[in-house]
Specification:
It contains eleven helices and four strands. The protein is α/β, with parallel strands linked by helices. Strands 2-1-3-4 form a four-stranded parallel β-sheet, with helices on both faces. Helix 5 links the parallel strand 1 and strand 2. Helix 3 packs antiparallel against helix 4. The chain is globular, with a radius of gyration of 19 Å.
């Protein structure tokens, strides 16, 4: 048994080490403002493993790290801006590389909760949902609770997806839950929540009235299928 296990360990260890070192290099490029070098690194990885895996294994973890540094006030506004521009570049490349997928799985309303302007995570989620066949209605940043529910009702969407990065803005998600319940739409419209704060404090999902969350943007299509009941059909 031990003889058959060793080749597997040696086979995957170099790739894991490559991922870790590449993330570190990507972070250095972003913090140094080296947009072109960062994109060269990401495009090289995508050429080997596809943009979807590049976003999952390189971009998302690096953005998470930048988010932590930002909340700890250890990076500059310029570094945060650079991270955003690089993420936009990657999203454009990913969208261009993906095949067009028919919107067969119904509408999902996305947006950042009121007073929240951290759009990177939401944009990543939108790409993965679109390439999985969902129709995405993206409301952007700083969206009031009433607008979320109004748009969901208008488009007969069964799911509202709300993003928040920090606790101070995540607490506003509770107003969306109350608005859903006030209109008698409990159970008819599910509330998916996401953002860095929910990875740090997963208990907030239930506390703020969420029906579920995903560990990363790439896992969001699975969450939406689960909340809409598609996984049981």
């Amino acid at each position: 048994m031990s003889g058959s296990a060793s080749p597997i360990i040696f086979k995957f260890t170099p790739l894991i080490m490559d991922i870790v070192s590449t993330r570190e290099e990507l972070l250095r490029h972003i913090l140094a403002g080296n947009r072109q070098q960062a994109m060269v690194l990401l495009e090289d990885w995508a050429g080997r493993f596809h943009w979807r895996e590049t976003i999952r294994h390189l971009l998302e973890p690096t953005l998470d790290e930048i988010g932590k540094l930002w909340m700890a006030e250890e990076i500059s506004l310029a570094a945060g801006y650079m991270a955003g521009k690089i993420a936009e570049d990657v999203l454009l490349k990913a969208a261009q590389a993906e095949e067009v997928v028919p919107e067969t799985l119904g509408p999902v309303v996305l947006g950042n909760v009121e007073d929240d302007y951290h759009s990177l995570g939401r944009k990543l989620v939108a790409i993965f949902l679109k390439t999985s066949g969902w129709k995405v209605i993206d409301l952007g940043n700083d969206v009031p609770a009433e607008t979320f529910v109004d748009v969901a009702v208008k488009h007969q969407a069964k799911i509202i997806g709300v993003s928040a990065m920090m606790l101070t803005t995540a607490e506003n998600i509770l107003t969306i839950r109350k608005e859903i319940d006030r209109r008698g739409l409990t159970g008819k419209i599910k509330l998916a929540v996401g953002g860095a704060i929910f990875r740090i404090r997963p208990e907030l999902v239930a506390e703020l009235g969420g029906d579920g969350t995903a560990s990363s943007a790439v896992d969001t299509p699975r969450l939406m299928a689960e909340l809409s009941g598609l996984e049981n059909t």
